[in-house]
Amino acid sequence: MTDSKYFTTTKKGEIFELKAELNSDKKEKKKEAVKKVIASMTVGKDVSALFPDVVNCMQTDNLELKKLVYLYLMNYAKSQPDMAIMAVNTFVKDCEDPNPLIRALAVRTMGCIRVDKITEYLCEPLRKCLKDEDPYVRKTAAVCVAKLHDINAQLVEDQGFLDTLKDLISDSNPMVVANAVAALSEIAESHPSSNLLDLNPQSINKLLTALNECTEWGQIFILDCLANYTPKDDREAQSICERVTPRLSHANSAVVLSAVKVLMKFMEMLSKDLDYYGTLLKKLAPPLVTLLSAEPELQYVALRNINLIVQKRPEILKHEMKVFFVKYNDPIYVKLEKLDIMIRLASQANIAQVLAELKEYATEVDVDFVRKAVRAIGRCAIKVEQSAERCVSTLLDLIQTKVNYVVQEAIVVIKDIFRKYPNKYESVIATLCENLDSLDEPEARAAMIWIVGEYAERIDNADELLESFLEGFHDESTQVQLQLLTAIVKLFLKKPTETQELVQQVLSLATQDSDNPDLRDRGYIYWRLLSTDPVAAKEVVLAEKPLISEETDLIEPTLLDELICYIGTLASVYHKPPSAFVEGGRGVVHKSLPPRTASSESTESPETAPAGAPPGEQLDVIPTQGDLLGDLLNLDLGPPVSGPPLATSSVQMGAVDLLGGGLDSLIGAPNFVAPPAATVPANLGAPMGSGLSDLFDLTSGVGTLSGSYVAPKAVWLPAMKAKGLEISGTFTRQVGSISMDLQLTNKALQVMTDFAIQFNRNSFGLAPAAPLQVHAPLSPNQTVEISLPLNTVGSVMKMEPLNNLQVAVKNNIDVFYFSTLYPLHILFVEDGKMDRQMFLATWKDIPNENEAQFQIRDCPLNAEAVSSRLQSSNIFTVAKRNVEGQDMLYQSLKLTNGIWVLAELRVQPGNPSFTDLELSLKCRAPEVSQHVYQAYETILKN
Amino acid sequence: MIHSLFLINSSGDIFLEKHWKSVVSRSVCDYFFEAQERATEAENVPPVIPTPHHYLLSVYRHKIFFVAVVQTEVPPLFVIEFLHRVVDTFQDYFGVCSEPVIKDNVVVVYEVLEEMLDNGFPLATESNILKELIKPPTILRTVVNTITGSTNVGDQLPTGQLSVVPWRRTGVKYTNNEAYFDVIEEIDAIIDKSGSTITAEIQGVIDACVKLTGMPDLTLSFMNPRLLDDVSFHPCVRFKRWESERILSFIPPDGNFRLLSYHVSAQNLVAIPVYVKHSISFRDSSSLGRFEITVGPKQTMGKTIEGVTVTSQMPKGVLNMSLTPSQGTHTFDPVTKVGD
């Protein structure tokens, strides 16, 4: 007698048959029928038609039958909400049952029926159950609050269930505490602002007590909740750590990892000199190693987390290299992760072992794994200098195997080794050149071309080699094309006599026959460089390249710190903050490690994201910035050369001949990239091309007049928050262009380079129109003034306040974030003067509720002065009227995004005792009024 | 928390689904099937698969994929541990965990799953408690149930559920009081060509079968507890006592359970009880080769070595093998290329 009989069907129509059985008088037959229904349901058959018949079976003393009916109800109540009401009475009755099992079952099931009408009836029974004498019922009810919150959050808040839930944290039964914590955490996740889990030392103490006594799952909930707490000093942190440490020996790996998370986070607060710190480090290693002997799925998650941990605190696992050696029967996803960690742990002490292992791996059968192993050898060479020679010889051995993909990977990594240790291993080039023909992957081809170009003077037939690549130029991928272009230019600069033809060929291929803007731009840059000043070209193209750093794949420190707070979660598996992938993203609060307390070295405390940064901010900024930097690195040139797109397109419009002549003056100024013609940078010290400065002269007469008010520079980013970089600045608007005047001061002891800037999306789409150009490295105590042209074509997101601008600045040290408020008048456009008739019509057209009244106090100006001062900031007087000795000015202005603002300004001339101006503003977007008023005030008072 | 569970057999049919919150359409499994296709072998399916709205976490046991669906940020280990617990529970209930058995007992399976999770939160995962709530099916009980009309579902709150020792029932009685302990050690070793050990570590467990009356309080002490590097205990073991005295003190669950698992790391000298040597040679002209393995006992301190099995995974290029053991039997499976 098995349940498979429930699946057999009769010909007459299954539903019909079941219906008859459900309505049978015999209890036994009824039960069998319900079982059949459930069986059909589990395999996805639709049996919702039987709803009334099944619900009729609910009134029964038979617990199994009751449970089965409940199972059915949970599945189908949503599709039959009206019928589901029939069940409510039974539920309410069951909640009063003397048997706690039935009380709990009723409240549990009720919560699972996701029908609005039923939830109303649920409140009373739930309230009773939350205060039930039996802890089993209480713990079930706690979870039910979370269910109810999911269905109807407002109801839960109105009924005060959240407070009851908070009280349950102090319950005498540890299981109830654990469930209350779990429920609160789930609710808090969807309502980050509600501050539900308000943790204080007392509640922490209760949680820690409950931690020892509740089930493994409860321990996970409590540990995850503890991880969100920030202890007030290192003493408290230590005492929590002491009480959490025993959890490291739990059989459940999830408990172990959650405990590791708490310890990793709180360790940040402990002083490194403390004995306890050392003990804790020692205690962390064994449980992490043990996780690796669990099932492969658990291993995978554990390895992803260990990857984070070794980046943050490599000392924990530095002696455990061997456990990361790959086993022959590991699934591929485990193998790849293990390789990654092996490289991170590689050091001079263990490099011999690691290399021997990696060499074995490189002869395995799995292609992906072999590739990664070959790459790993290269990374070892870059990381551990002493091993470089051995790594190179290992790679050469591998190239001799002639296995196609091994050879290609080897060439890619050898290129990196050249970049790290120039002029050391060039003897191998000959071997590499032998394998030229077998390369078919773009990355390997590009790497080989780079090598040929870089060492052209030592390769006799370099021109022939490159020429052979050039034949199929248009079939190559962009990566190869760019590399080929650069390599040939390098070759030309090294051996100008023989290769002139070749270089002309490649330049024309790149500039005339290609649709790829990157390729074309790079082609033009080279062409112009070569045609104007070959010496300069040599200096630029063949400049000494910076050595590549050992760990380019490390996670950024700020991100790493955030991820450490998420150990054990999905975020740690993806190595991304939850805001990057969790549905909706709204409910995500950025977590950061607690700062080290005052007793220890404060300089070491990690930089955390600015407090109050809205969710998503970092996300918007960091990735794009990485790309930007990546682009700069890809360019094979010493100083970063990139310009606003407009500059190049204008060049293309002219005939190519022009390159040598007319525009020379533009390029003549070293490192100066011509801004788009419309942009007039307001910084005075910058060198200008002679042709363009004429243009400036024309406008400068007007410029001084029409330039709007510029606020003095304010400090936006203090040096102590940005590792020594101080940024102050202001915004200006001159002749139609907005710019951000920045003053960068290096107050650190090291040289700063590689500056880049990025704005977060903002209300008016402000965005940099050109990259941040800091030409020379900024040495300590040096200050540089830069004017960054802005445009308003960036992406738009409404900010609070409206004129808030979030900025990320990057240099070779780190990424820094700050936010600033920009005055709205930089957005007032020049054609903001409205026609009189239009003005009248628009004024009438805008509803009165959009009108806002303001007073500008203590402004002893007469109407003319006011009018002219405002005019220079693009607020135009449309008409003027004199009413009862008061001057009424009617003014209009337009914002960059096309919003018109109309103003009526009342001035009382000749009345020295009454110097207030009255301003009323009308606009279709009334939220800007406040800011327009502030702009008025700033302009008139300065 | 855990949203839904799908059971999928190796041919890609979803044969059971269970939802603890709102119903998630089974089409979400398509992402899983895609990953499965890409992975070529069932063991290589990645355990965490992102989809636009959900995350699929899976384990592969007994030729069945247990795929859990989650929607919010959940510790993946929590989910995977839970899935393992589900597998263990099925095995405990039905003896084996296989597709036909699950289909045969679909209602019990459904009831058990409902007891294990509530709204995605684990409710009762201790098999002792579960068995009191829902009695495992036995032939005798089915017969009795049909005659008396009683049910498989316990109608009393399980006593262990809320006590300080949730793993043990009260009122256990045996006429023969007995307790058995099995020490199982697995040595993971990498041995190089010359036969010397590169790395070796021991992964050990102590499984117990305790059938004692009442509430016994047991202590177990070791000759050399220092060897045990990292231990994970069953929740019944008092951790404080182990920390201070290195003695295991516990009130055991009733029946079979895993008392502790431990790890002896590569730093401690692990003596491998056997030696292994091999040689591989290829004949130049033909595609034939010879692979020799010699396995023999090392000094074993008086213990004999029994049941030695050599398993060797052959690369895909190997078409067939002819095996000649000097002792015992041999098999070769040409599909998985595994020689025994």
UniProtKB/TrEMBL annotation, chain A:
Its main location: membrane. Pfam families: Adaptin_N, Alpha_adaptinC2, B2-adapt-app_C. Residues 709-819 form the Clathrin adaptor alpha/beta/gamma-adaptin appendage Ig-like subdomain domain. The keyword Transport applies. Residues 594-616 have a biased composition (Low complexity). Belongs to the adaptor complexes large subunit family. One of its GO terms (biological process) is vesicle-mediated transport. PANTHER family: ADAPTOR COMPLEX SUBUNIT BETA FAMILY MEMBER (PTHR11134). Residues 828-941 form the Beta-adaptin appendage C-terminal subdomain domain. One of its GO terms (molecular function) is clathrin binding. It is a peripheral membrane protein. It is found in: Endomembrane system. This is AP complex subunit beta. GO terms for cellular component: clathrin adaptor complex; cytoplasmic vesicle; endomembrane system. Keywords: Acetylation, Membrane, Protein transport, Transport. It comes from Camelus ferus (Wild bactrian camel). Residues 585-619 are annotated as: Disordered.
Automatic annotation (TrEMBL), chain B:
Keywords: Cytoplasmic vesicle, Golgi apparatus, Membrane, Protein transport, Transport. It is a peripheral membrane protein. Residues 176-340 form the MHD domain. GO terms for biological process: intracellular protein transport; vesicle-mediated transport. One of its GO terms (cellular component) is clathrin adaptor complex. Its main location: membrane. It is found in: Cytoplasmic vesicle membrane; Golgi apparatus. Signal peptide: none annotated. Belongs to the adaptor complexes medium subunit family. PANTHER family: AP COMPLEX SUBUNIT MU. This is AP-3 complex subunit mu-2 isoform X3.
